[in-house]
Every structure is written in structure tokens, then in C-alpha cells.
Amino acid sequence: MEKLRRKHPRPQFIRKNWTSLDGEWDFSCDDENTGLKNSWQNGFTEARKINVPFTYETKLSGIEDTSHHAIVWYQKKLTLEETKNWVLYFEGVDYQAKVWLNGQMVGEHIGGYERFSFDLSGYQVSGENTLIVRVEDSLACEQPRGKQRWLKDNFGCWYVQTTGIWKSVWLEEAGSQRFEHVKMTPMLDEDQICCEIELHDQKVMPDMQGLSVEIELFFNDKKIQAVKSLFQHEMMPINIDTRVQEDACWGTKVWNTNTPDLYDIVFKLYDESGQLIDEVFSYFGMRKISIKNGRILLNNTELYQRLILDQGYWSESGLTPPSVEKLELDIEKTIEMGYNGLRKHQKIEDERFLYLCDLKGVLVWSEMPSTYTFNDIALNKFTNEWLQIVKQSYNHPSIITWVPFNESWGIKNISRSKEQQRFTEGIYYLTKAIDPNRPVITNDGWQHTISDIITLHDYEENSTDFIERYKDSNKIVGGSHQKAQQFNKDFFAFADGFEYKGQPIIISEFGGIAFDSGEGWGYGNMVADEKAFMERFEAIHQAIQELPYVTGYCYTQLTDVEQEVNGLLTVDRKAKIDLEEVKRINVKRLD
């Protein structure tokens, strides 16, 4: 199953019969917006080849054109059997997609970072079928962009845009009566997993009384529990005991950074005659995140977070990972350097990355790509997509923190704007309504409103100045702390009207040291050689590690990204410094 999960685009929700559509497609830009007028939805001939899921801007796409094209089209021939029910899945398309099969529209979707799907039943024919996808993207700051530029050229820490299909596409055989989603909530203290099931499209099955659900739990390939229940209503909670008997031991297998134990779980759906009509293979981890007395606890034990900022860019493929092996390499390098987690910055990563973090026990902060203006359009686009992302990523045990906002991007007047403050409060409470267990950070690094963790971004390069600034915690959270000079000189830890409530404090961006190579940029003065790099690196880490009220940190950053050259690794994942020394410094606080 592990091999299959590394391959499947949705490793926590696998059906037996599925087919990847990644690979060669026909592709065409539609700069004059004449495709619909010329009936390209029925098929088009003036096309070049593109390697999906890589976007036309990247080398691995086979095109490598970094200019902006607002409308692009994709075409692929599919051989299908009309008697089978196929579901078409897109893991990520940026930004607005319309999909046709054999000239008939099967659906449309708005949002660049969430998964979506369409039933092909009723549209497909036996034999050859023509699949058409039209994608419209823009440079508008109202849509969640993350680190995608909205100007012609790169600037600051914003990079080449991502347009069109940028994550995997696949087909699954599944009937209209099927599992749509299962929400799995670990209840560690009770030795139970709570499963809440949603079925697909209630319009096709108004009477659910005849349906039944069976759930099987496995640990190390051994079945430990099986529960069968009539399906009475959607999101009906089904609690299952997770205790495992091994030798003389009897208890729940706990997921943590040292022993990331995972359970396998199988969901089966039966019709009123007892016939199996759907089966999904998944997994979960039993772990608990909580906050007590200003400290973050993992499984009721204090957790000190040693995170690294990870933007997930590659020179040959932009935001799209070149391969699962390249994703795994980043995680292995993170572990090798002594970090116990990462902040996935301004990106919703390939779900196979989250699976690998689940598998290896790496903590993840999941962060929403930002908008860059505030109005009703931006508010609606952000909210709709964020809530779907939280739902889709909820079951991953590696995710321990939600980060909907970063550095006032898209909410630049939050310090005094009541509308923007209420927006962040609304997102906080909506997120907590879906997931009351994980911490939520509003406005990471800058002026916080309501927030479970107080996070500070400070790229001070002089450790002596850093110690002087942070030695008195009252100055940090009392509203009088002014931020490092690199940012707004009027920075405070809280927006007007908000104050410290005893939350944990984390330095969630710092460092950003870069070598003086004559190209690119880093934070503060560049260094001449590895000796100078490591002296500054160790000194600033020690300054943070010795602060008794700080519960963790996040170093900027794992790799170089385009013009930003402050990674511990190059964009091609070559180490710039001795990684063993990085590990020694990271784990020093544990000695």
C-alpha cells in the first residue's frame, strides 16, 4: 500500500480502479479569446504538446514560456467503456476551469489550490472520447496568488506565475452512490477515531435507509477492529476503538515525530441488497495537538518546534514537484538538518508530500496563498477556497497548524481597519468550527487579531541586538514592541483593540542568510564564506533558543527560489554549508 500511496495523487482516498491522465496533452493559448467562438470545446487542431501537470511556463512542460497568457486550452483523447462510471479528478488548476467531454460541458470550477471532480456518466461513449479543458487565469490581486507575480517581471519575493493545470489529473471508476469524503478525527485520550462520512450527490438517492457502511481498521496489516452500521444520515459520527494488542501491551499506537505510527482504514458502502457498491482505502494517525499555559503540546507533552520555511519551488517545474522522489528528497534534507517540521509557505502542496510527512513524522504548518487587495471579491474568493482546503487536508496527522494569513498580505490595514480585523476573526472562527483541535494563526508574523499562537518575523542579523530586543517578553506582547527595521517601523504584535492572552510565542521567520555571489538577494548583509555564514547562523539560533518564553522557531529557508538566494540548499538541492553543523545547532537546545 505504501508504494501505491506514493503514486496516487490522493493517497488518503484510493479506489482500486484508477488511471492517471498525467503526460502528453494538446495545448493552445487563446490570447484573443476566440476559442469558444470557434468551438474549440468540440476539439481543436492548432496545438502544440504539453506535459501535464507542468504549466507552460516551466521547462518540464516542454514549452517554457514565462510570459502571461490569460486563457489556455488543453485536449486529450480518452478510451472509455460506456458501461463504466468514471469520475474525473483535478488536483489543482489555476484558476478558472471549464471542462467538456465530446463537446458537452461536464462542469466548471473556480480556485487554484483545491481539488475538484466531475462525473463523466452520461457524457462518455464507448471507444474514443475527447476531453477539453479551458482555463482562464489573471493577474488580479483579488484571487489567491501566493508567491505568483502579478507584474510582468519578478520582483521582491514574487516569482513567475503558474497558469492552468499544475497538479495531477486522473480517472476513477465509481458509481453515483459512493463515498465523497470521510472526516477522521483522532481522539487520543479516549483511544478512539471518529469517522464522519459524506456520500456523493444526495439527489440521486433520496432514500438512504437501505445503505450501510462497514469500516475496518488495520495496524501492521493485522485487522484490529471492524464496525458495520446502517447509514442514517450524513456526517453521522462513528467512533471506533484504536487500541492494539501487541505481545503483553494493549493501547493506541501514537503518531509523533519519533514514531509516526499510521493505521490503515477501509471504508465499504453496501446497498440494501448487501452488494458492495464502493470501497475506499485510507489511513490516519492518532495524535493530539493542544495548548496549555503558553506551551504547545503534542500528545500531552510539550513540543518545541524547529521548523524550516519551505516554498516548494523547482528550477525546472516551478510550483509543480518534478517527481515524488524530489518531494521526498526535500523532506529527507529537512530531517537531516535536525528540523522536526516545516512551514509550507504560501502554497498548498501536492498531497503526496503530506503523505510523506505523515509517514516520516514531519510537522507541517499549512498556509493559504495570499490575495493582495481587500474587497468583497477577494473576501469571497479567499473564504470559499480556504474552507475547502481545510476540509481536504484535515485528515493528515502531520498538519498541526493552520495559517490563513501572512504578514498582512491582502489585509494591509488590519492594524486599524475594523473590516479587515473582522475578516480575520471570521476566518479564524470558521476554521475552528471545522477543526476545533488545531491551532489557527491569524496574520502570521505581524499584527495579530484573535490567534492561538503569537508569531513574530524578525530578520535581525546581529544576535546581540536580537537578545536586547527580546529579553523582556512584556515589551514583545505588551503592544510596544517595534519590529526590525527591515519591515514597517510601526509594527506591533497586535492590531488595535487586541492584546496578549497568554498564547505560545514563536519566531516564525528569521535568518534568511545569503552568500555574496553578486546575484539575487537575502535578508540583511550577505556573507563572504561558509565560516561567516555558520557564525551568524549559530549566534542567531542560540539567541532564540535561550529565550524561555519562546516555544519554537522557523528558519528562512530550505532552498533558493528564483531571485531569492537565502536557502540552506540551492534551488537544485545542493547543500551550501555542512548540514551536520546545521543539525548540531538545531538540536543544541535538547542537549
User: How many individual β-strands?
Assistant: 31
Distance between the termini: 38 Å
Instruction: Please give the radius of gyration in angstroms.
Output: 24 Å
Coarse morphology: globular
> Proportion of β residues?
25-35%
Low-confidence stretches: 480-488
Largest sheet: 7 strands, parallel
> What class do helices, strands and sheet pairing give?
alpha+beta
Helix proportion: 10-25%
What is the residue-averaged pLDDT? Answer: 94
Spatial strand arrangement across the major sheet: 28-27-26-25-31-30-29
Tally the helices: what do you get?
A: 9
Describe the structure.
The protein is an alpha+beta fold and 591 residues long. 17% of the residues lie in helices and 30% in strands. It contains nine helices and 31 strands. The strands form eight sheets. Strands 28-27-26-25-31-30-29 form a seven-stranded parallel sheet, with helices on one face. The chain has a six-stranded antiparallel sheet with strand order 3-2-4-10-7-8, with no helix packed on it. Strand 25 (305-310), helix 2 and strand 26 (341-344) form a beta-alpha-beta unit. Helix 4 (376-393) runs parallel beside helix 5. It is globular, with a radius of gyration of 24 Å.
Can you give keywords for this protein?
about 600 residues; alpha+beta; seven-stranded parallel β-sheet; six-stranded antiparallel β-sheet; 9 helices; 31 strands; about 15% helix; about 30% strand; globular
Concise overview:
The protein is an alpha+beta fold.
What's the topology here?
Blueprint: H1 2-7, E1 18-20, E2 23-29, E3 48-52, E4 71-80, E5 86-90, E6 93-94, E7 96-101, E8 104-110, E9 116-119, E10 127-136, E11 164-165, E12 169-173, E13 179-187, E14 192-199, E15 212-219, E16 222-230, E17 237-241, E18 243-246, E19 249-252, E20 263-270, E21 276-284, E22 289-292, E23 295-298, E24 301-302, E25 305-310, H2 324-336, E26 341-344, H3 351-360, E27 363-367, H4 376-393, E28 399-403, H5 418-434, E29 454-457, H6 463-470, H7 473-477, E30 505-511, H8 530-545, E31 550-556, H9 579-586
Parallel strand pairs: 25-26, 25-31, 26-27, 27-28, 29-30, 30-31
Antiparallel strand pairs: 1-12, 2-3, 2-4, 4-10, 5-9, 5-12, 6-11, 7-8, 7-10, 13-14, 14-17, 15-16, 15-20, 18-19, 20-21, 22-23, 23-24
Helix pairs in contact: 2-3, 4-5, 6-8, 8-9
